[in-house]
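Quick one, T. Sequence first:
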Amino acid sequence: MKFKNKKKWYLFMILIIVSFLCNARLFAQMRDITGHEIVADMRVGWNLGNNFDSLGGDETAWGNPTPTRGLFPVLRDMGFKTIRIPVSWGEHVGPGPDYTIDPERLDKVEAVVNWVLDNGMYAIVNMHHD
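Structure tokens:
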């Protein structure tokens, strides 16, 4: 599939990434509630900034430690219910015409999303800097 401009390509990639991260487990947990009820349930959130949105070699490029599975039960126990995960894909995309996202990067982001979900919290993946 070829795109004539980057905007359409980015929109397509957002759809692919969202589809990739929304696995069967998420659909099994869906509830019949309104958007207002979801937002009320999300309560206070925490930002996993400067990791996957850092512009550099890896998620420690801006001085933050690598996120681990053990971080999210601590955040949950502190009362956080929503985790924002800003991600910059630009430095992790191969050349055209395929523009393939680095599978290692996708795996790391998916792992963090799953750790959030495993702790009963909401995960918001934010495409950042791209």
